[in-house]
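forwarding from the other thread:

> can someone predict this with DQA?

sure thing
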Amino acid sequence: GTVHVINGPNLNLLGTREPAIYGHTTLADIEALSRAACERHGLTLVFGQSNHEGELVEMIHAARGSLGVVLNAAAYTHTSVALADAIKAVGVAAIEVHLSNVFAREAFRHHSYISSVARGVICGLGSEGYRLAIDALAASRVTPAA
Ligand code: DQA
């Protein structure tokens, strides 16, 4: 099985970007922990990041038929019908992840276009959320969610 971890705009700057909110973990650290989590489950990891909405749409298309997508759409979470439609279009299981607790932040971060098409949502747990999402997708091999 393959898991696609897809990261949206500005997440390439993790480590230096607003460390009071996002911490010092870099995207390379997140890739490494995602790879380790996938290896524990015998899964193949495809890891990507883009600052461009259309490229993120294409990354979701490329995940068709995979075990699932772990999606941190970053700011596009709050704006993108296209990303939500892509998840529905390919019918892939998606787990929405945010490093920060978006509900403890500005009101504009409280709405997500992704949540209603996601199998689950994890936020506020930092990079640990990615590991938890991968563990959940791995578990779904045995007990598929409805
Ligand atoms: C984020 C939360 C979003 O509101 C924000 O735009 C981001 C990162 C997070 O991981 O906490 O860029 O998705």
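The two ends are 19 Å apart (CA to CA). thats all i got for now
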